Amino acid sequence: MDVVVTSPPYNLGKQYNSYDDNKSDAEYLEWCGDWAFQISRVLKPGGSFFLNFGDASENPFFAFEVAMSMKQFFVLQNTIHWIKSISIDREAKSYGHFKPINSPRFLNDCHEYVFHFTPEGKTKLDRLAVGVPYADKTNIDRWAHTKGKDKRCRGNTWFIPYKTIHQRAKQRPHPATFPTELAVKCIRLHGQPNCTVLDPFLGIGHSGLAAKECGDLVSKFIGYDVDEEYLKVASEVLGCSYSAI
């Protein structure tokens, strides 16, 4: 595999059809080690493994414990912050969606992590494939590293809001999905053409949609899920068949 992009259940008690999201921390971390080993077994030496993970305010170190459980198999090459909602004071505007926290102790949680693991920490990326234009266009000619292009590295903070939905049962029949754009950016950042992409926690197929959107960058996409109902939705969305094992 060239690229793995996935988002497993976060152990937050979500109501999945076929999966118990209420393991003890120790059980969950052991489970993570099991599937991380399988990913390490198939990932190419120059591959990228993008792991999206969010946590709860009551257990703030857990995302890092999950990341540490990968250490025996991978190097953490980048940590990306997926910003789901942002407020900009100077414009008095708010963008994106979040689930409000009704607590006098915690701030609303408006972000999740995307841990970028690689086998050796030496995987080259196409940083400008997900780059952003310069706000000050004079920088294009001022700095030699621009090479005349109006693009700079986006950095490790990505603002990607969820699309607004009106009927959850029809539009998002899954308790925990990530936006297609998040997976698109991961695949494009890896940047190698004709790559094979894997999602071992396919859900309803958003990573598959991302692979299709990336066009010639992806020659093959493989997705797995334990829930046949989710696979049915994914196959309809992606216009393909699936096999039950």
Under the CATH scheme, the architecture is 3-Layer(aba) Sandwich
Tell me the major beta sheet: 7 strands, mixed
Strand order of the largest sheet: 7-3-6-2-1-8-9
**Share of β-strand residues:** 15-25%
**Model regions low in confidence, pLDDT < 50 over at least 5 residues:** none
CATH level 1 name: Alpha Beta
CATH topology: Rossmann fold
CATH superfamily: Vaccinia Virus protein VP39
The count of β-strands is 9
Mean pLDDT: 89
Distance between the termini: 21 Å
What is the gyration radius calculated from CA atoms? 19 Å
Shape: globular
| Structural domain tally | 1
Q: What is the string of helix and strand elements? A: EHEHEEEEHEHHEHEH
Helical content (DSSP H or I, runs of 4+): 25-40%
Count of DSSP-assigned helices: 7
Structural class of the helix and strand makeup? alpha/beta
Set out the fold topology.
Elements: E1 3-6, H1 25-42, E2 48-53, H2 62-69, E3 75-83, E4 85-88, E5 93-96, E6 111-118, H3 138-142, E7 157-159, H4 168-171, H5 180-190, E8 195-199, H6 206-213, E9 218-223, H7 228-238
Parallel strand pairs: 1-2, 1-8, 3-7, 8-9
Antiparallel strand pairs: 2-6, 3-6, 4-5
Folded structure, characterized:
This protein is of the alpha/beta class. It has one domain (3-238): Vaccinia Virus protein VP39 (Rossmann fold, 3-Layer(aba) Sandwich). 27% of the residues lie in helices and 20% in strands. It is built from 7 helices and 9 strands, in the order βαβαββββαβααβαβα. A 7-stranded mixed β-sheet has the order 7-3-6-2-1-8-9, covered by helices on one side. β8, α6 and β9 (218-223) form a beta-alpha-beta unit. α1 (25-42) packs parallel to α2. The radius of gyration is 19 Å and the shape is globular. The two termini are 21 Å apart.
